[in-house]
Structures are given as C-alpha cells and as structure tokens.
Specification:
seven-stranded mixed beta sheet, four-stranded antiparallel beta sheet
Length: 124
C-alpha cells in the first residue's frame, strides 16, 4: 500500500506562488509516477503535472506549462509542485497520486493511490 499526504495549499493573491508537497510512504511499485491533479467546484478532476520517480522526467498540462514545475526529492520520498504566477483559474483542490509508469500518466484512471487533497485558492 501507498500513503500520500499533500500539504502547502492556502489562500494567496493572483501572481503569487505556492509550493505543494506530496509525501509518500509504503512504496509498492518498482517504477512509478506521481501525478498532480486538481478539481475545481463543478468541474472534473484534471491533470496538472506528472513526474517519473526514478528519472525525474516531467509532463505538464498546457494550462500550467511555464508557470508550474514538478520535482522530486528521492531521499525524502517527496514530490513538489512549485506554482508560480498563480491565476484565479488555478483555484482548486489539488491531489497527488501514484501509479505505475506505464499507460497514460495524464489519465487519472491509471492511478490507484491518492492523497486527501490540499486546497489552493487564488484571490484577485
């Protein structure tokens, strides 16, 4: 089993930055990816970014490319999502998820493990 705990959310103004953390324990996959997804009220849970744990290769949604950066600290078993130039459209509940490194990592359906979510609210 895998346990994931997100942290770092909060209320900030447009243009500000936040860094979200996803601390993982109980690793069960030899090769896995960590994805960040977000869900705004009334909308479906959408892909934000993903990283391959071993290599650090990353992929981003077009809506956040150039503003967000995903990274990982192998020693701490933690994945980060650095969010810069935040916009009101970024307001959502952010989830991290872990899944095997095959299939489409942008698809929330491939991730069996999810954190509880951390709220990010951007005011203008």
């Amino acid at each position: 089993q895998v346990q994931l705990v997100e942290s770092g959310g909060g209320l900030v103004q447009a243009g500000d930055s936040l860094r979200l953390s996803c601390a993982a324990s109980g690793r069960t996959f030899s090769n896995y990816a960590t994805g960040w997804f977000r869900q705004a009220p009334g909308k479906e849970r959408a892909f934000v970014a993903a990283i391959l744990w071993s290599s650090g290769s990353a992929i981003y949604a077009d809506s956040v490319k150039g503003r967000f950066m995903i990274s990982r600290d192998n020693a701490k078993n933690t994945v980060y999502l650095q969010m810069n130039s935040l916009k009101s459209e970024d307001t959502a509940l952010y989830y991290c998820a872990v899944g095997p490194t095959f299939g489409v990592v942008t698809d929330r359906g491939i991730y069996p493990y999810w954190g509880q979510g951390t709220q990010v609210t951007i005011s203008s």
